[in-house]
């Protein structure tokens, strides 16, 4: 009789314990969800590959809308915004039109509140080849006006991504975002391969030299009186708190 009672009590305890464990498991399942997160920092206009994302279990209290819950929902899609390593990927981060540049531009301007143009700047100089996504650069556009050479400085210019060939390899272009005003300056210069990339500090404290002499410039022309003009370029730092790019253009002849 004692053995039967003990077995009954033990069975009841096991049933209660199993029920408790089951309740905790059910409660945990109801309060958590599986979401897709990035395995590395992903930049705008990146095509998501299988190794770029993974799934983790998180609390449902995150409050983030549109979370992707399956890797297949994001693999093969292009991003419109940067997703830091370990952050979840949402439907709003994806370009709904595949690799459409126009859709990408629309999404980018809507989220940032800035107006401007996207440009693909060919990597044609050593400095351009060491630029990383997410950094800011300065673009220098030299122009010859008669006997005077000017250098237009556009800065800071955000580099949204560094584009590479589909099969990988050496970067071929920098994906940048510029104002419409600066686009009109850059577009013809890009076609003439006449844009230089300059690196600037990435701590929002751009401190360029006050004057940069362009010595031995092959494009410097003799003045009408036969005297070769000396060109100096004056650059100015961006305004504090400014989100756009500033353009500075100074003429030569200030020896």
Automatic annotation (TrEMBL):
Compositional bias per record (Low complexity), positions renumbered to this chain: 240-249
Region of interest (Disordered), ranges: 232-255
Stretches that traverse the bilayer: none
InterPro entries: SAF
Entries under SMART domains matching the protein: SAF
The SAF domain, residue ranges: 33-95
Protein name: SAF domain-containing protein
Species annotation: Ferroacidibacillus organovorans
């Amino acid at each position: 009789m004692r053995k039967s009672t003990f077995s009954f009590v033990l069975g009841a305890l096991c049933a209660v314990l199993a029920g408790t464990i089951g309740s905790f498991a059910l409660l945990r399942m109801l309060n958590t969800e599986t979401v897709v997160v990035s395995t590395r920092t992903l930049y705008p206009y990146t095509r998501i590959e299988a190794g770029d994302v993974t799934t983790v279990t998180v609390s449902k209290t995150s409050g983030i809308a549109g979370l992707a819950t399956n890797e297949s929902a994001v693999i093969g899609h292009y991003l419109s915004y940067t997703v830091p390593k370990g952050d979840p990927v949402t439907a709003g981060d994806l370009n709904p039109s595949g690799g459409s540049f126009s859709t990408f531009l629309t999404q980018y301007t809507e989220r940032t509140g800035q107006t401007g143009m996207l440009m693909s700047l060919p990597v044609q100089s050593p400095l351009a080849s060491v630029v990383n996504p997410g950094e800011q650069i300065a673009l220098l556009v030299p122009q010859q006006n008669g006997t005077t050479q000017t250098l237009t400085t556009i800065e800071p210019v955000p580099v949204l991504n560094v584009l590479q060939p589909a099969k990988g390899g050496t970067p071929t272009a920098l994906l940048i975002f510029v104002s419409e005003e600066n686009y009109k300056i850059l577009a013809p210069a890009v076609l003439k391969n006449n844009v230089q990339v300059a690196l600037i500090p990435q701590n929002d404290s751009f401190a360029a030299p006050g004057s940069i002499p362009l010595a031995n410039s092959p494009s410097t022309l003799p003045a009408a009186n036969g005297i070769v003009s000396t060109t100096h370029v004056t650059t100015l730092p961006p305004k504090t708190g400014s989100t756009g790019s500033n353009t500075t253009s100074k003429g030569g002849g200030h020896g």
